[in-house]
Amino acid sequence: MLTQNDYFNVGPEDLEDQTLTQLAELQSLPLRCVGIDFSDQDLSRVSLTGALFERCILADADFTSANLTNTRWVSCRAGEANFRSAILTDARFERCDLNNTKWQRSKVAHVCFEGCKLTGANFGDTSALGLTFRDCLLNSAMLSGVSFYKSELHKIDFSDADLTYCDFRKAVFVEGGSLSMARVNNARFDDADLREASLQGLRLVDAKLFKGAIISRSQAGILLAGLGLTVL
User: Domain residues of the chain, as ranges?
Assistant: First the structure.
């Protein structure tokens, strides 16, 4: 892991006469930004490979088509930020507020989200090989087509999310989680272990999608109730 000496530490004075984009072009070291407000800034197409953002405010910031490879984001507030078409390969987000962020057509391969709020986030048409979430809120998020094949899903709340065409085959829900009211048309749950997840309100649109899935007796009752059947 990099130390403080491996970064160029950005202070407010560094941004008085130049933008973050200009500063990044001049520095050979990756940037480290702590407690800086970048709200509403246009950071599209900026190259910030390896940068570290700690406790920064990035609400409504625009990172369209930015190179954010191997970046790290810790305790940042970035609600409504735009990451469309950005390259985020191997990036890591920890304890960040990312509600209603936009990630369409971005490259999020091997990106890790841990302890993040992603309510309403849109991951439509992303390149998401190896994308992982842990202890995250993804309620009402758009995740259509994302693969969670053989993933361990720790405390993931997918309530009301769009999970159409997602691949949950052989995935395991660990320490809770929720699929309540999620849209699962054409998703695959073959051999998934769903026993720890809440299935309240989940509609069993096609039983074949859950072939081999492991559920509890109480969960079976919930799914059958959604078909209008009463379990005695």
Answer: 9-134, 138-232
Higher pLDDT, 61 or 218: 61
For residue 10, what is the enclosing H or E element?
A: strand 8-10
Query: Over the range 2-40, which residues count as b (16 or more CB within 10 Å of their CB) and which as e?
Result: eeeeebbebeeebbeeeebbebbeeeeebbbbeebebbe
Residue 205 has pLDDT above 80, yes or no: no
Q: What is the CATH number of domain 9-134?
A: 2.160.20.80
Do 9-134 and 138-232 agree at the fold level? yes
CA distances from 113 to 59, 91, 178 (A): 18, 9, 17
Which 3 state secondary structure label does DSSP give 21? helix
Give the CATH number of domain 138-232. 2.160.20
End-to-end Cα separation, the chain, in angstroms: 56
**Residue/partner pairs of 98-103 with CB below 8 Å, 24 or more apart:** none
Which DSSP helix (H) or strand (E) runs through 114? strand 112-114
pTM, two decimals, is: 0.92
pLDDT in tens, 4-20: 789 999 999 999 999 99
Q: Assign 133 to helix, strand or coil.
A: strand
Nearest-CA neighbor of 45 among 72, 82, 90, 18? Answer: 82
